[in-house]
């Protein structure tokens, strides 16, 4: 463990004890983005895995074709020592109800995101361990990184430790899916949930797409061609983000022209300024006080009316049509798409 270089404990391969999971069976419930990656990585690491899926699931054959054993969620959970809850957050409470009889004293209920524990949508029995290994990446990259022998950072949290071995077992699980190669950061369910929701809303998914769309609309409304606007505001985003990912903002600033650096540093904070910061504070408060969670739970109970509307409006934005046309012209984009499709499990 590295305690000196970071403000939080970070664990690596040599901190993990694979014996803590060696003779256990893991039920991976769900075979979507995270599920297929956890199941295949665990299996390749020699851990006994059973995938839990509904009888009529299209993914059933996919998982079997990937060499995995498959059972219904309740049967999988009943035979497992560790139940990894990798179905969508919104269906987890119902799936938990269906599998909870199969949880025995000393078993582990494990999550990749703490929403349902933190917001009390799942109340696990007191005699099981409750842990989290939350890879900080979409599932398809978790699998790709494992296969390519690189690692994926993850968060580890323990909510209930009835056996006294919860953390050791979670670390062994993280090692088996390839996360201790990159570093596993210890946190709490509360911190993971609040930072994850804030990050995906304000910066990663919500913030960046809104910024791109506003930039695109500004150029198109001013009479520039949609193609130019697409390249400038969306396509080049990846190249800029790649540079920051590799070497921080400094590497990005070093790679762009001095004109871009001056303009970016001088004008950027005028665009994303104090007003945005105030909006971010508000979004964070709604995550912290549970208002967002309540809204999302009620939205699902009502059959997702707002989600459906927002989803459709987003997919119908001009930028998607222009992007589809432009990406079709580039062989590199097609190759990347083919590669992604080959790796992805069947959609639900
Ligand atoms: N997406 C990501 O990369 C990340 C996700 N997480 C967390 O990981 C967890 C899983 O998310 P994610 O991988 O996105 O989930 P997905 O939406 O990809 O999960 C889909 C899978 O869940 C199955 N499923 C859906 N509903 C049910 C049900 N009622 N009963 C049984 N199985 C069902 C589907 O079955 P079928 O195949 O039959 O359709 C499918 O196999 C969540 O807690 C999420 O927050 C954490 C980090 C990143
Ligand atoms: C950024 C989105 C995410 O939080 C993730 C991939 O980590 C998610 O919920 O999918
Ligand atoms: Mg996340
Ligand atoms: Mg998330």
Automatic annotation (TrEMBL):
InterPro entries: 6-PGluconate_DH-like_C_sf, KARI, KARI_C, KARI_N, KARI_prok, NAD(P)-bd_dom_sf. It holds the Pfam family KARI_N. Keywords: Amino-acid biosynthesis, Branched-chain amino acid biosynthesis, Isomerase, Magnesium, Metal-binding, NADP, Oxidoreductase. Mg(2+) 2 binds at residues 196, 232, 236. Pathway: Amino-acid biosynthesis; L-isoleucine biosynthesis; L-isoleucine from 2-oxobutanoate: step 2/4; Amino-acid biosynthesis; L-valine biosynthesis; L-valine from pyruvate: step 2/4. GO terms for molecular function: isomerase activity; ketol-acid reductoisomerase activity; magnesium ion binding; NADP binding. Its EC number is 1.1.1.86. Mg(2+) 1 binds at residues 196, 200. Belongs to the ketol-acid reductoisomerase family. This is Ketol-acid reductoisomerase (NADP(+)). It comes from Haloplanus aerogenes. The lineage of its organism: Archaea, Methanobacteriati, Methanobacteriota, Stenosarchaea group, Halobacteria. The gene is ilvC.
